[in-house]
UniProtKB/TrEMBL annotation:
Cross-link (3'-(S-cysteinyl)-tyrosine (Cys-Tyr)): 95-161
Residues involved in Fe cation binding: 88, 90, 144
Protein name from the UniProt record: Cysteine dioxygenase
Single annotated GO MF: ferrous iron binding
Family, as annotated: Belongs to the cysteine dioxygenase family.
SUPFAM superfamilies for this protein: RmlC-like cupins
InterPro entries the record matches: CDO_1 (IPR010300), RmlC-like_jellyroll (IPR014710), RmlC_Cupin_sf (IPR011051)
Organism the protein comes from: Arenimonas terrae
Length: 192
């Protein structure tokens, strides 16, 4: 079991453990989303110093906890100024994302068409989320982008996944609203 100790980590893990006991993904993610937002807003947890260190050429992914029993994973992401993602999915894994520091621009997409290995997406909403806000992704509604819109400040988000997310699909523009899919292995940055 991977577990990085930090102030409030016991409250975070207890809250997630209580939420993942049910069979309903919607209820599970709602409970985690509400609990995570509360922990952030009340400052009941303080993430380790390492999560405030950006990586120059990519957003950082640092796994803070992985539960051997149920499989859920807690990953802190550090977004340097302007860093973001392509349109991507979560390989069918639900996720709850909470903003700990800064702001993130999150755009949701609906899959509108597929022609072989080409995919057509339509943006259906963009949110500028600040510290204390949290959202969830439940497949098949999992296509999105995330970007730090600041030119100077970092952003930090905490992601709770049903299971460790080791790969996902990225979608790259191919013209006329179509995208090509590329599978991507997800790495982790050091969390100590």
């Amino acid at each position: 079991m991977l577990a990085l100790d930090f102030p409030g980590s016991d409250k975070l893990i207890a809250m997630i453990n209580a939420a993942v006991t049910g069979d309903c993904q919607r209820q599970t993610t709602d409970c985690i989303r509400n609990g995570l937002s509360e922990l952030i807003r009340t400052r009941a947890m303080t993430l380790p110093d390492c999560v405030h260190e950006p990586v120059a050429d990519h957003y950082a992914r640092r796994e803070l906890y992985r539960c051997e029993l149920t499989g859920f994973s807690v990953v802190a992401m550090t977004w340097g100024p302007g860093q973001g993602t392509a349109i991507h999915d979560h390989s069918g894994v639900w996720c709850v994302e909470g903003i700990v520091e800064g702001q993130l621009e999150i755009t949701q997409y609906d899959l509108r068409g597929r022609d072989g290995e080409r995919f057509q997406f339509e943006p259906v909403g963009t949110t500028l989320a600040g510290a204390g806000s949290a959202g969830s992704l439940i497949p098949p509604h999992e296509y999105h982008t995330i970007r730090n819109p600041s030119a100077t400040a970092i952003a930090v988000s905490l992601h709770i996944y049903k299971q460790a997310l080791t790969c996902c699909a990225h979608f790259h523009p191919a013209g006329d609203g179509w995208y090509t899919k590329a599978d991507r292995q997800l790495g982790l940055d050091e969390a100590a």
